[in-house]
Amino acid sequence: MPIAESDVRWVEEPRLGILEQLYVPAIVEGLQTTVQHLFQRKITVQYPEEEPTAVSRDFAKLPANYRGVHRLNRDEQGRVKCVACYMCSTACPAHCIDIVAAPSPWPDREKYPETFVIDELRCIYCGMCEEACPVDAIELTTLYDLTGLSREEMMFDKEKLLSVYDQTVKAGTDPIRTRAGKLSVASEPPLPS
Ligand code: SF4
Ligand code: SF4
Predict the structure, then answer these.
(1) What predicted TM-score, i.e. pTM, was given to this entire model?
(2) Does ligand 1 come within 6 angstroms of the Cβ of 119?
(3) Is residue 101 part of a domain?
């Protein structure tokens, strides 16, 4: 339907003064902004010369809840904490966690992950796996510079995920942020009938 003539409002183009025609106010305003920024706190990180980390200077510090590369945590005895319950892979919206469970070689749990693979290329780093895990076995770390030369390299298996744990704990960059402690009820073997 065409617009009625009475609904049309014509707007007059504002007349510019001599200064505005010379762009002087705009240039002064731009210079003011530049000078203001010269004396403000710097927030740009000159990556890769300057790398933000969990413990670096304030403006280059990653937030405490930053979600980077995964790790599989170890328990007090250095064993993988995971009890192969599939909660993380069920919660994962990207379907990038592949677990094969096997009977546990240890008496304090029923199952353990024989294989545990995360496709880091498919992952959207949402943190749902960390949220879902009942025994705090999987966490996302502050490692962000993830590179690889092949798709296979980006498939992180159990050993690689445990090595991320070792590396981050040794570096002190990622304290265990989920509830640390004993394996929860999810890992308890069934009671004898
Ligand atoms: S961070 Fe999200 S997408 Fe990535 S593995 Fe965990 S649940 Fe899946
Ligand atoms: S939710 Fe935790 S315990 Fe369960 S399979 Fe995933 S990492 Fe292992």
Answers:
(1) 0.72
(2) no
(3) yes
Contact 164, 173 (CB under 8 A): no
Q: Is 118 in the pocket of ligand 2 (CB under 6 A)?
A: no
Within a domain: 119: yes
In a domain, 43, yes or no: no
User: In which domain, by residue range, is 110 found?
Assistant: 60-184
Q: Is the CB of 128 under 6 A from ligand 1?
A: yes
> Does 96 contact ligand 2 (Cβ within 6 A)?
no
Query: Between these two residues, 19 and 26, which has the higher pLDDT value?
Result: 26
Dist. CA 71 → ligand 1 center (Å): 12
Total domain count, the chain: 1
CATH (domain of 119):
3.30.70.3270
- Collapsing DSSP to helix, strand or coil, 103 comes out as strand
State how far the Cα of 168 lies from the Cα of 178, in Å rounded to an integer. 15
Does 152 fall in a domain? yes
Closest listed ligand to the CA of 92: 1
Ligand 2: which residue has its CA nearest to atom 4?
85
Q: How far is the CA of 149 from the centre of ligand 2 (A)?
A: 28
Q: What confidence score (pLDDT) does residue 181 get?
A: 44
Terminal CA-CA length for the chain: 78
Asked whether the beta carbons of 71 and 139 are under 8 A apart, the reply is yes
